[in-house]
Amino acid sequence: MDKIRVIHDPVGHSLTVWWGDPATEAICEETDDEVVLMKDANGRVIGCEMLHYQSATVGGGLSVEAVVRQAA
């Protein structure tokens, strides 16, 4: 089973999502939208980080919804 890691840092105001192994990170690239793409040595995106993220809910909680679809 694949794992997805979601990390919310309310102090640093960031939201990080990993769908690959963070230990294989080799390159980081910031986009114009203040999103950082984390890539492995082959240039494949394995995660992203949203800078200046603030939760829309009072109290700073984070709700994650998982939707799994079977391949056709």
Protein described:
The chain has 72 residues and is mostly beta strands. The protein has a domain at 5-51. The chain contains no helices and 5 strands. It has a 5-stranded antiparallel sheet, with no helix packed on it. The protein is globular, with a radius of gyration of 14 Å. It starts with a strand and ends in a 21-residue tail after the last strand. The model has no long low-confidence stretch (mean pLDDT 89).
Task: Summarize this structure briefly.
This protein has 72 residues and is mainly β. The protein is built from no helices and five strands.
Shape: globular
Distance between the termini: 19 Å
Mean pLDDT rating: 89
The string of secondary-structure elements, in order, is EEEEE
Structural class by sheet pairing and helices: mainly beta
| Strand order across the largest sheet | 1-2-5-4-3
Number of strands: 5
Strand content: 35-45%
Counted by DSSP, the helix tally is: 0
Please estimate the helix content.
under 10%
Spans with pLDDT under 50 lasting ≥5 residues? none
Provide keyphrases for this structure.
single chain, 72 residues, mainly beta, 5-stranded antiparallel beta sheet
Show the helix and strand layout.
Elements: E1 5-9, E2 14-18, E3 27-30, E4 35-39, E5 45-51
Antiparallel strand pairs: 1-2, 2-5, 3-4, 4-5
